[in-house]
Design goal:
With 146 residues, the chain is of the alpha+beta class. The chain has one domain: Histidine kinase-like ATPase, C-terminal domain (Heat Shock Protein 90, 2-Layer Sandwich). Helices cover 22% and strands 21% of the residues. The protein has 3 helices and 5 strands; from the N terminus they run E-H-E-E-H-H-E-E. It has helices at 20-36, 82-85, 95-105; strands at 7-8, 45-51, 54-60, 109-114, 120-127. It has a 5-stranded mixed β-sheet. Strand 4 (109-114) and strand 5 form a beta hairpin. Helix 1 (20-36) runs antiparallel to helix 3. The N and C termini lie far apart (60 Å).
Amino acid sequence: MLTALPVVEPQAPVLLLVDRGRIAQVFDNLIENALKYNPSGVPPQIRLWEDGADARFSVVDHGAEIPEAERDRIFDRPYRASSAQSITDTGMGLGLYICRRIVEEHGGRIWVEPTAGGGSTFNVALPRAHRQIELVWRPPTPSGAV
């Protein structure tokens, strides 16, 4: 099923030095969770912006709010929030743990906050690249050549 999601984009590109596939896995997991655990039917909002030395990404949903006592533990392995268990019985409780590991391997952090009006906002902060790096390949010189 395809779902149109509102996205708030930055005015200029945000440069990151990351493993694109691994960071895409984080985004996919957070968006998939926001859709899966959202009985209200209101699509989650996705935001991307620069915040000082960080690039920030958030997924704002209007589903079940994660209880305050569980907000740190949901990133542990394996853990499922009590509010998630009442909505669906699927999942192993590994997704957010994997997200945390990937984000931390990139020098970033991930956390959750309550969404105004109900739900949860998952936030990711990753260090921005402060300069563009150009990679140039040069063929090896034959041995003995100067």
